[in-house]
Amino acid sequence: MADTKHTTKTYTLPSGDKMPAIGLGTWQSPKNQTSAAVKAALEAGYRYIDTAFAYGNESEVGEGVRASGVPREQIWITTKLDNPWHKRVAEGIDASLKNLGMEYVDLYLMHWPSSTRPDDLKKHYDDWNFIDTWREMQKLLDTGKVRNIGVSNFGITNLEKLLNDPSCRIKPSVNQIELHPNNPSPKLVAYCKEKDIHCTGYSCLGSTNSPLYKDSTLLEIAEKKGKTPQQCLLQWGIQNGWDVIPKSVTKERIEGNFALDGWALTDEELTKLSNLKDRFKVCGDGWLPVKVFFGDDE
């Protein structure tokens, strides 16, 4: 069997930096529980925390990191530029660093390919789009404030637009996208691999009340392995080549999600999970002023 030390597995980005295979997600983590969750994760062995300006909990993430006693340089921190800040990229990273109480982040992502007007969140700028935003994000690499830059929620259509633009000197290192067996996005994952863009899977557990947890195939595999469905979903992601960022604020679940060493899914089990028929998306684009998902990921 291949190496099954999944919690220390890393993926090497074009910069040479090594991104851990599993981190703690903090989307929808309440502010008053985030610091304790981050501390619990770091104490359990996690070395990667994912947050975003839009989550409103960067400050609590920073508190949890400091409370853990784990040196900053041993932890991978990802945060994201919020949509209404697209014209203010330099100010955006400064705001996030101030919230985090840190001098740099390991990865800074454009959260969505939507340059939303701050004065009206239902409207998109007429004179600015994500290509302009990326042009500004590339400049951050010379500041020492970010080690790597990437995107999130980009499908093939928007990646093609970005990569083919003459202003795109540096490719995104990472594309953070929704990835679970009910939204496996094989075409998008293959496209990113071909372009040497690493994928991070968000909503990797299918989110709260996911229909995944009623899926007989997943439940059978979990029972056979003597593992939780959540653990099997995380292994499915890591063994398919992307990192996963399960969100929890419960100490027991945080620790359970990290119990991935010493076992693996078989090729047959991976294939079964990759071929579930149901489709379910946690994050749509109906709330944005522009469409960003075009059904080009399957």
Helix-strand blueprint:
Blueprint: E1 10-12, E2 18-20, E3 24-25, H1 31-44, E4 48-50, H2 58-68, E5 76-81, H3 89-100, E6 107-110, E7 116-117, E8 120-124, H4 130-139, E9 149-152, H5 156-163, E10 174-178, H6 186-194, E11 198-202, H7 216-225, H8 229-239, E12 243-244, H9 251-257, H10 267-274
Helix pairs in contact: 1-2, 2-3, 7-8
What helical percentage do the residues reach? 25-40%
Uncertain spans, ≥5 residues at pLDDT below 50?
A: none
Spatial order of strands in the largest sheet: 3-4-5-6-9-10-11-12
SS content category? alpha/beta
Morphology call: globular
What is the CA-based Rg, rounded?
A: 18 Å
- Give the rounded overall mean pLDDT: 96
How many helix segments? 10
Number of strands: 12
Major pleated sheet: 8 strands, parallel
Span of the ends, CA to CA: 30 Å
Beta-strand percentage range: 5-15%
Order of helices and strands: EEEHEHEHEEEHEHEHEHHEHH
Explained architecture:
The protein has 298 residues and is α/β, with parallel strands linked by helices. Helix content is 34%, strand content 15%. It has 10 helices and 12 strands. It has an 8-stranded parallel sheet with strand order 3-4-5-6-9-10-11-12, covered by helices on one side. The model has no long low-confidence stretch (mean pLDDT 96).
Quickly list its features.
single chain; 298 residues; alpha/beta; eight-stranded parallel beta sheet; two-stranded antiparallel ribbon; 10 helices; 15% strand; globular
